[in-house]
Amino acid sequence: QAKAAGRRTYQRYTEQMEWELRQRATLSGALRKVLENGELRLVYQPRLSLRTGAITGVEALLRWEHPYLGLIPPNHFIPLAEESGMILPIGEWVMREACTTLRRWRQHGLGTLNMSVNVSALQLLRGDLPRYVAKVLADTGVPGERLELELTESVVMAKAAQAAQTMQALRDLGVRLAIDDFGTGYSSLAYLKRLPITTLKIDKAFIDDIAQNRDDKAITHSIIAMARTLGLYVVAEGVEHQAQARLLMEQHCDEIQGYWVARPLDPYRCLAFLRNWRSGVARFEPA
Ligand code: C2E
Ligand code: MG
Ligand code: MG
Ligand code: MG
């Protein structure tokens, strides 16, 4: 009986592994043609200033719409794209697409809007990223100051010396640099201080229970306090409820991003959202 059950479990286990391997192979194959087939698009998630109630910018988030595999989330294909090196041309497409959209929106009176773009380790370590960014900025007429690149903690930590030069070259273009998913890796703020970073994005994991959990509340409080000491701008990710927003405002967090403000939106809807936005401060008034 137990043996049979064990065998069934084992069988399910291997079937699951085989399925995952096949899935990976299918995705990797399809990924090679993603650009020529025009299957990528960007959605944009607004960021709200807790100081002014204004929307200060948007983060570009990648979507892959495959004709028969459907919508594939970035967490599924970006690791594959990194393994194969496809992330390099994909990353260039993202940079150009995001800046082209910003250029269009700037013509609609959104001249101070910022665009954040996620950049993967490989792109940063290649070293020619600043040259490419400079070209896209020149081609689209977007000032470097309007662009922010989001880097993950792990890269910056593992290859700090190598990354630091590239980071400084980007800063020289006026581009701001954010550490994404802050708190999930190993970096200490003291260490980050040595890098030309401008912004910290506190990972959603710390925000989730901030309104209920005293430890989480204390953690965000001290991250914000230390960031302030180091002159870094702080953004909280994954804010889904008003109670979280309120608390972060009390803790003097600069900006928030999350479903409570807006979901990631397609460019058309995002433009409508941005043009209709008056002031988010009204949302904090007692219900
Ligand atoms: P990220 O940069 O930390 O982006 C935030 C993720 O959280 C996004 O997931 C966003 O849709 C989601 N999110 C935002 N607010 C909320 C919320 O209130 N609740 C919940 N549950 N989720 C929220 P998404 O779009 O699936 O992207 C996942 C990750 O994939 C990103 O995490 C980023 O690391 C990576 N990624 C996305 N686009 C790109 C890209 O163009 N290039 C690279 N290299 N990575 C990208
Ligand atoms: Mg990000
Ligand atoms: Mg993040
Ligand atoms: Mg994240």
TrEMBL record:
Q: Which residues of the full protein are shown?
A: 444 to 730 of 730
Q: Which GO terms describe its molecular function?
A: cyclic-guanylate-specific phosphodiesterase activity
- State if Disulfide bond is listed as a keyword: no
DNA damage as a keyword of this entry, yes or no, is no
Q: Which UniProt keywords apply?
A: c-di-GMP
The residue ranges of the EAL domain are 24-278
Question: Would you tell me the protein name for this molecule?
Answer: cyclic-guanylate-specific phosphodiesterase
